[in-house]
Every structure is written in structure tokens, then in C-alpha cells.
Amino acid sequence: MKDKRWTLEGKLALVTGGTKGIGKGIAEELVMHGARVIITSRSIEEEMQGNDDIIYYRSDASVKADRSALVGFVADKFNRLDILINNVGTNIRKPTVSYTDTELDFLLQTNLISSFSLTRDLYLYLKKAEEASVVNISSVGGLKHLRTGSVYGRRQK
Predict the structure, then answer these.
(1) How many CB atoms lie within 10 A of CB 29?
(2) 8 Cβ contact list (under 8 Å, min separation 6)
(3) Which of 88, 115, 121, 146 has its CA 20 to 30 A from that of 135?
């Protein structure tokens, strides 16, 4: 049932990492308020069938070619975007000296570069919206009660 207190009717949203957790909840709320939502994830199951308001698109935000293909999909199929939710994120918890360059690159590509790149590369399509919104859900690293990897500057015990 769509919530009538406010509406996103006619809006197109993109939610990265939208098949589970916070991203899934955000996507469900956007649909409930009337938006059509593109949901991305590294693992889109074949049996995932969206209604007309949900479009599943397999894309790994840590991979530049996947991000480029996603931007191409938005450009070719819709030529506009109203809402971008950069939700994808990951973490590797270990002491600083234990990180490999590959792990560091993966973390930065997933958690930082993907949000920046998608926002920059989708800018032209967001600009076409009357009132576009970009939401970056960054990291749990700022929460004091959670221990996270040293990439985020948290002291390891």
C-alpha cells in the first residue's frame, strides 16, 4: 500500500546494494512512496522478478566497468534520474600491517570511489530532475561501539 502523506510518484531512484539490509529497506520505502527503483547488487538472482516499480540490475560497485555499464543503462533506458542512494559498502577488519594492497583497493573502490564516481557520472541525468537527491551512506566506522578496520582510523586492541 502506498503511503499518501507524501509521494515520490513519477520519480526514478537508484539504490546500490539494494537487495538486502539497509538498501533493501530503503528501496521498499521508495516504492511504497510511489518511486520506480533500480536496485543494484553484485548478486542478482535469476528468480528475482520485480514488479513494474522495481528493476534489478547486476553491478559490482567496486568494479569501474560495472559502474560504467550501470551509468550506460540509466542513460539508455531512462535518460534521467531523480534519486541516487549510494548504499553499497563493505569492511575488512584487521590490523593495518595485515592489509594487502588488493584488500585496500577493494575497500576504497567499494566504499569511497563508487559513491564519488556514480554521483559524478550520473550528474547529467540527476540534473534533468527538478529536484534531485543524492544520499551517501558511507560507513559504520564512525560509530564508537563498533570495531572496524584500521583503514578507517580506529584503534585496534
Answers:
(1) 14
(2) 30, 33, 34, 35, 82, 83
(3) 146
Amino acid 117 reads S
Q: Cell 578496520: give the residue.
A: 149
What is the biggest distance separating any 2 CA atoms in the chain, rounded to whole angstroms?
Answer: 53
For the stretch 108-153, pLDDT in tens is 999 899 999 999 999 999 999 989 999 998 665 555 555 556 565 5
List, for residues 28-85, the tens digit of each pLDDT value: 999 999 999 999 998 876 555 667 889 999 999 999 999 999 999 999 999 999 999 9
C-alpha cell at 154: 580506529
Q: Is 123 an annotated catalytic residue? A: no
What pLDDT is attached to residue 96? 82
| Gap between the Cα atoms of 28 and 43, Å rounded | 18
Of these residues, 56, 57, 125, 152, which one is catalytic?
A: 152
CA distance 19 to 27: 8
